[in-house]
């Protein structure tokens, strides 16, 4: 079920700026059970939406591993995105016009604090499992630190405790592509869209891997393979162009720009002494998953997370898909989740038995 949560009060961001209310688009499946302990909270990545059944088939949705017949599943479209939540194209109540370039940036921590208000609205007091990859995993870690008692289990995938200089450099280059578009400074919804297409092609280089391109995009397009060498077109070239065009059909440059800036600010240690100290405050049972070929969020970043969350497990999936492996290796992710959650259920039953014995 697709819904919208509206918050009418002032909301203060980490920057100190105040938003005069906001709205969040979110999707729910299933129902809360009588014990109210069957909540799954899914966090989406940069350009996805609040319907993980679309972008995580097999993991979430009817007849999937995380099935609404068993769980109450919640996924929120993050602020700044273009899929229904407050964004740069939303109306600024102070001007009556879209925010555009004046949109106040929501950090990942701001996003989590907005979700907490939705959580209260839904009457959720406990989350059985929080799961998310990439920017979604960043938000999950933030929330598990903000409210350690909320989550029973968390599974951050292909993510980090603070965004690296390498990641910031990639995002900066993508924003420079948008800024170089002559239309970017204009006040309309399609401003900067050609620049965003180029930005997306840059992003793909960080999402995939050398081997990915060698195995799937080698050689020349069939239409040009027989032509003189100066007229041949590489498959990798058309693939990059296609990915930019594909994103432009469903996204806008403003959301892309502000979401990338939000990712750059991610640092669970900000105002909490250090990232290590912040991670140590997480009490949820934790499975951290990395992707062996991930260039953007390398496995060393997941190892850092697992090292500092008490009792955390670490699994690294061997994949040639690079960072996008967290979206594509769902069969392996399901196997890891199955073992992790089975152990969690056994642990929960044992804990209950111990309480009954102690009583």
From TrEMBL:
Pfam families: Abhydrolase_1. GO terms for molecular function: homoserine O-acetyltransferase activity. GO terms for biological process: homoserine metabolic process; methionine biosynthetic process. It comes from the Bacteria. Substrate binds at residues 200, 324. It catalyses: L-homoserine + acetyl-CoA = O-acetyl-L-homoserine + CoA. Pathway: Amino-acid biosynthesis; L-methionine biosynthesis via de novo pathway; O-acetyl-L-homoserine from L-homoserine: step 1/1. Residues 39-328 form the AB hydrolase-1 domain. The keyword Transferase applies. Gene3D superfamilies: alpha/beta hydrolase. Keywords: Acyltransferase, Amino-acid biosynthesis, Cytoplasm, Methionine biosynthesis, Transferase. InterPro entries: AB_hydrolase_1 (IPR000073), AB_hydrolase_fold (IPR029058), HAT_MetX-like (IPR008220). One of its GO terms (cellular component) is cytoplasm. It is found in: Cytoplasm. Its EC number is 2.3.1.31. Belongs to the AB hydrolase superfamily. MetX family. Homodimer. Transfers an acetyl group from acetyl-CoA to L-homoserine, forming acetyl-L-homoserine. This is Homoserine O-acetyltransferase. The gene is metX.
């Amino acid at each position: 079920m697709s819904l919208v949560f509206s918050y009418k009060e002032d909301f203060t961001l980490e920057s100190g700026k105040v938003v005069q209310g906001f709205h969040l688009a979110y999707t729910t499946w299933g129902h809360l059970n009588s014990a109210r302990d069957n909540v799954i909270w899914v966090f989406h990545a940069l350009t996805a939406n609040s319907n993980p059944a679309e972008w995580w088939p097999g993991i979430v949705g009817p007849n999937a591993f995380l099935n609404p017949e068993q769980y109450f599943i919640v996924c929120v479209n993050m602020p700044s995105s273009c899929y229904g939540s407050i964004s740069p194209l939303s109306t600024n109540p102070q001007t009556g016009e879209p925010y555009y370039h004046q949109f106040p940036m929501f950090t990942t921590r701001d996003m989590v604090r907005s979700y907490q208000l939705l959580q209260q609205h839904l009457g959720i007091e406990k989350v059985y499992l929080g799961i998310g990859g990439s920017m979604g995993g960043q938000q999950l870690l933030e929330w598990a630190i903000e409210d350690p008692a909320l989550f029973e289990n968390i599974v951050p995938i292909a993510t980090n405790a603070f965004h690296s200089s390498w990641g910031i450099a990639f995002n900066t280059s993508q924003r420079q592509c948008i800024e170089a578009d002559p239309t970017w400074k204009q006040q309309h919804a399609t401003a900067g869209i050609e620049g965003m297409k180029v930005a997306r092609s840059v992003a793909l280089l960080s999402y995939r891997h050398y081997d990915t391109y060698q195995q799937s995009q080698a050689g020349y397009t069939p239409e040009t393979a027989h032509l003189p060498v100066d007229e041949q077109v590489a498959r990798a070239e058309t693939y990059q162009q296609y990915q930019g065009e594909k994103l432009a059909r469903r996204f806008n440059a403003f959301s892309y720009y502000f979401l990338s800036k939000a990712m750059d600010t991610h640092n669970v240690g900000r105002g909490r002494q250090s990232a290590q100290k912040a991670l140590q405050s997480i009490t949820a049972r934790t499975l951290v998953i990395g992707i062996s070929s991930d260039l953007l969020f390398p496995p060393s970043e997941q190892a850092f997370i697992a090292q500092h969350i008490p009792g955390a497990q670490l699994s690294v999936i061997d994949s040639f898909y690079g960072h996008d492996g967290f979206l594509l290796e769902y069969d392996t992710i399901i196997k890891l989740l199955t073992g992790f959650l089975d152990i969690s259920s056994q642990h929960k039953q044992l804990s209950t038995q111990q309480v009954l014995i102690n009583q």
